[in-house]
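Human: If only I could read C-alpha cells as easily as an amino acid sequence. Underneath my words sits a plain record pairing an amino acid chain with its C-alpha cells. Take your time, and here it is.
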Amino acid sequence: MCGILAHIRSIPPREGEPGVAPRALQLAMSRLHRRGPDSRGVFESPDRRILLGHARLAIQDLTSAGAQPMTDNPADPRTTVSFNGEIYNAPALRAELERSGVAFRSRADTEVLIHGFAHWGFGGLLERLRGMFAFVLVDRHEPRSPRIYAAVDPAGMKPLLWSHLPAAHGGTLAIASDADALLALLSESPGFSRRINPAGLCHVLSVGYCPAPATVWRGLHKLRPGECLTWVPGDLDPPSVKPYWHPPESVSPDDARTNDERRFETLFREVIDDHLLSDVPVGLFLSAGLDSGSIALALAQAQRTSDVTAWTLASPGIDPAFDEAPIAAAFARGLMMRHRAIDFAPTDLAPTLTDAADAFDEPQGFSALLTAVRIARGARDAGLRVVLAGDGGDETFAGYSWHSGAPHALSLDPAHAVPARSAFDTSPLARPDCDASTRAAARLALAARSYTHRALCRAFPGFHPAESRALLAALEPEYDDDTFAGWLASEDRPRLPHPRRSQRLDVMGFCAGSILPKIDRAAMHVGLELRAPFLDRRVLDWALSRPTTADEAHPHRSKPMLRDFLARGVTAGLVPPAVLNRPKQGFSLRLGADRPIETLAASLLPGSRLIRDGVLRRDYTSFLPGDRDTRHVRLFTLCMLAAWYEQRAAA
C-alpha cells in the first residue's frame, strides 16, 4: 500500500531542462509521504520524457528488493511500474509464471505485475488479478514510442487520478494517488491552473461526494471502478479510458441456490485467507455488527485469531446501549482474539474534523469520515500497519435500509415505488424565504425523476440541486437535476430484480464515491493499509449474481447469508447472540453531547474562509430543513466543506 505518481511528456525536454520542475516533484512526493512513509523512489527515462514516483508502505518483502518504481531489468529497463495495493493471488500467479521459466528477484507482488504484463499482456494481466490495486506501467520496448498503461481494481478500492494537458501546452499526462499530489505535480506546468470545479462542489452538497470521473478540481479526473487507461505519448487526444470489468448484469436461475451456504463459506474463507498475505501483523476493525463479525468468525474457523488484534471505536459518555465496544470486546474474548478500544468522545469532534479535512483530498458529506480517521489514527499510533474491515458487506449482501422491502417515501422496491410526478417548479428553492413544504415536495419530485434519482436521494438526504446552485451561486455552477444523477444512469439495469438493481448502483456509486475514499484516505493518511474482503472481485461476482431471496427484503432480516453464517457461530458458542440482534451501526458517528453538529457549525461556519471568500452564501441556514436528522447531515456537509476549503484555499 503506497502512493504513486507519473509525469509523461509527449516530447523530450530541451537540453538542460528537467522533465518535471524539481520544486513541483518535491512537493508532490511530500504530499504522498503519508501514504508511504517508509521510503521514496523515482524512476526517470534516459530521455527524461517519463517519470514515475513512489512512496512506500512496506507490507510484503520488506527488503530493498521490494522497492519501487520497479523495473524488469535495472541495467536496461523496458517495463517499469509504480504500484499501490495488494495482489492477493500473487503467490499463485508467481508460481504459474515460474513454471513458464520466469525468474523473480524479489518476493514482492509488484514483480508479478511486471512479468505478468510481459507474459499475458495488459488485458490478460487485469483479468487474472485478484486484489486491490492502482498502478501505472510504462512499456519502453520501443523507446521512441513508449506506451502508458494504468488501472484500478474492480471495486475501485485504490484511487487513481489523472490530468492531460493538450498539445499546445506540451501534451503532458500526469497521474497520482490523490488530488493533492496531482495538483502539486502540475503546479508549475504551462497551461495548468488550479481552479475549483463548481459542479463538483454541488455534487458534494447534493450527493454527498463528487463522483468519478469528475473531481472537485477542473481538469482532474478519477478512474471509475474496474477502469483502465492507455496512452501513447505524442497522441493529440487524451488517454483512452474504458472498463475492463462490470458488475454482474444478470442473476443466476433460482435453482442455483443449492448449497449457497456452503459455497459462501468456502469462498469467504479463501478470500479471508488471501487477505492475510503480509510480512507484518494484521489487525481487524471489529464492531458489534454483521460484517466485521463475519470476518472475525472466518478468522476463528481458520484458527488465525491468535495472530490478530481487534480494534473497536468506543463512545464514552453516551447511552451504553449505543456503545458497541463491550459487545465487541466479548466477541473478541470468545474467539481468543486480542482486543483494544479507541475512544471517540464529543470533545474529539472539532480536532478530528480538522484531521479529516487534511486527510481527504476531496470533501464529503458523511460524518463516518470522522470515525474512520479517529480509529485509523489510534490503531496506527499503536503500531498497526495492516487491518481488515467489514466495509462493502452492505453492497455485496444487501444490508442498507433501502434494500428493504418496507414501505418508504423513497422506496427502491418496485412494490413501493414513488409515483411519477409532473414537472416541478424549482425556482422558489433558490430563495431563502422558500417554505419548508415546498422544499420537501421538491425533494420528492426530484426522486421521482428516475430510479437513479431516487437511489441517490435515498442514500443521502442532501440539498436539492437548485439549493446547491443557490448556496454556491458565486461560483456560477452549471448543475441541474440531470447533472445530479446523469453520471450514474448508465449503470442502471432495470431488468435486475430488487435489491440487485440497487446493489449494482451502490457498488458503482455510493461505495466507489464515498465508502472507498473514506477508508482509503482515512487509513493512508496515517500510513495504514486497510483491506476490505467483501469487495474482493470474487465476492462481488458471486454475491451480485445470486438469485434473490425473500429474507433480503425483510426489514429486520437483512444480509441473511451473513446472519445464517453468524448464527452457526452462536450455536457453536463463538459469537455473542447480541451481534444478531443489534440495530445496524458499524463505525458510524455516535456522540452523546446535545446537538454536537449544531454547536460545531455555529463555531466554524460564520467566520470560515468559505464564507469570507464568498463561496458559500452567508444565509445558508435558511436552506436547512427543520427535520433534525436531515438538518445535521447537511450541516455536517457544510462543516466538512469549510474545513477542507480552509486547508486548500491558499495552497
